Amino acid sequence: MNETTDVQTENLEKEVKNETEQNPLGTEKISKLIKQFAVPCIISLVVSSLYNIVDQIFIGQGVGYLGNAATNIVFPFIVVTMAFALMIGDGASAYLSLSLGKNDKESANKGVANGIVMSAILGVIFLIIGLVFRDGLLTIFGVTEGSYEYAKVYMTYIVLGMPFFTITNTLNSIIRADGSPQYAMGTMLVGAILNMILDPIAIFQFNMGVRGAAIATIIGQLVSGILSILYIKKFKSVTITKETLKIEGKTLKKICSLGISSFITQVAVTIVIIVLNQTLTRYGAESKYGSEIPLTALGIVMKVNQIINAIVIGLAAGAQPIIGFNFGAKKYDRVLKTYGFAVKVGLGITAIGTLIFQLFPQIIINLFGQENELYNEFAKLCFRIFLILVTLNSFQITSGIFFQAIGNPIKAAILSLSRQIGFLIPALLILPRFFGVEGALYAGPTADCLAFILAVVLVTIEIKKLNKMKMEVE
Prior knowledge:
Blueprint lengths: L1 H21 L7 H33 L2 H37 L3 H28 L1 H7 L7 H11 L3 H16 L3 H25 L3 H22 L18 H10 L1 H26 L6 H37 L3 H28 L1 H6 L6 H14 L3 H16 L3 H27 L1 H37 L1
Helix pairs in contact: 2-3, 2-7, 2-8, 2-9, 2-12, 3-4, 3-6, 3-7, 3-10, 3-11, 3-12, 4-7, 6-9, 7-8, 7-9, 8-9, 11-12, 11-17, 12-13, 12-15, 12-16, 13-16, 15-18, 16-17, 16-18, 17-18
């Protein structure tokens, strides 16, 4: 009896090993895999970033910088909502990759299904919060007297699209991990293109101002959400049933722990924006620029930088299922090669971005409307000071997702917190006291430098561990 059991166990282990070895994530050329997974992911995230930026471009041209100030003020609420959506989506996708690497399809089914249900619930919750606590939230986010009416209108409409916004962002991560990055890209692309078409029609032709921009965004999110939901019946690696849709505390806890890095990153961005808005309003009022110019200019600069960050995050997120699968399959050499490839490409991309920001800031500024000389002066300072060391930030972003992929949420959380909460906020609170409103700009490179040093230390320790584990399995 025991011999029969041993034989069955041995056969099962061989079957699992064969399935693992046949999976292209464990055998295909790494550069080819990253291209396959990362390019659609990058396009999806860049497109997602463009939603708000496109609004700002058309609002800046049609309404002016006070309209853009309004979208900057509402932006923290959008980022918080995305934080929860990405925590569930990235956590479920990491859970899916790790489960498939271990050939545990039952866990994969539960993880994906629980993620979808939780995302829908969160979307409705944020819709209600946005409508009920609108004015209080706007005050917290740093609304000024001149921008209040614009911000009130924009937020009233934008929150109506939150359920589809959360579902789209959650499913986008899961669809990529399921092996359909092109479909994930398509869902985002269709919504963004629709938004770009409707924005000028609503703002200029129908003279709807910020309300028109918000409605155009909602319609784009609605279409993207529907396309994402339609994919549920097309899953390749999981099967969704009524049983798997029941929320399971243990599964949801694991998903949240794996996605905590993405969550913390987005929440930290929100806290930073709130502190930044309050700082710029206070110290800007004491300068020649006034309170609205710094609030609008740095908000736009940060959103432009989001495009560069989206490329780096997309690259790292594209590498995540490759790293997660190979870590689960104990192929540590491929884990290290994938991470190294993502770091090198990320540094190259951000270096190019830095050159553009330093050499051609006025060209970018003009996209958001022709404003007065004081506005242009401060906006150029924002690009040339605040973003001078964004190349270093790419290493920290990639390393955070790397730790998330190998199932180490604590280190991922530490890295995610370090730049925004640990270094940037203290710098924002200290430097303006000595350098006025420009001190807020110097806080950016200060935080980038310190976060880079911390990331190097943590990654060096982890690579030593992986090299030791690699030697043990060889």
